[in-house]
Amino acid sequence: MKKKFDHIGIAVRDIDSSISFYTNVLGGKLVDHYRSEAEGVESEIAIIDIHGDRTELLMPTNNTTSPIARFIKQKGKGVHHVAYDVGDLDAALKDLEEQGIRTLDWSLRTNKHGRRLIYLNPADTEGTIIEYCDYPNQ
Q1: What does the alpha-carbon distance between residue 45 and residue 37 come to, in Å, rounded to a whole number?
Q2: What is the model's pTM?
Q3: FRET label pair with 73: which of 13, 81, 108, 137, CA 20 to 30 Å apart?
Q4: What average pLDDT score do residues 67-87 get?
């Protein structure tokens, strides 16, 4: 199964300051800025495009239950995850199961842009949070 880089997710404490850095210093363009209170997300999200490459800035909106808040508390701000477009998420999940790679089942969802996604268990990925995603309606 062919995989290609989709985006990188960055955990931040101050999304407005981060947007300013990514747009003014790195020359990116703010594509979207929204808040998601969905269980397992609970974050304010800004999508930045830098010459065709996407960065998601993720700021927790609930410091008790947000996985981004937990991440920042444990590891500090910075790279949270790397995402790969797998073309067909259902087929990719079958491949992962055959290879004995676990996913974080609670993270399976479709976001507001129609991207289906799931996180792989970092215990099986050398400690890196990896997102598999697809765009079934595109």
Answers
A1: 11
A2: 0.92
A3: 108
A4: 96
CATH number for the domain spanning 105: value is 3.10.180.10
Over the stretch 22-74, which tens digit does the pLDDT of each residue have? 999 999 999 999 999 887 789 999 999 999 999 999 999 998 889 999 999 99
Number of domains in the chain: 1
Domain holding 10, by residue range, is 4-134
Closest CA to 59 of 17, 119, 3: 17
**In the chain, helix, strand, coil percent, each to 5?**
25, 40, 35
Q: Parallel, antiparallel, or unpaired for β 78-85 and 130-134?
A: parallel
The one-letter amino acid code at 27 reads: G
In angstroms, the Cα distances linking 52 to 6, 11, 26, 59, 128 are 10, 21, 13, 23, 24
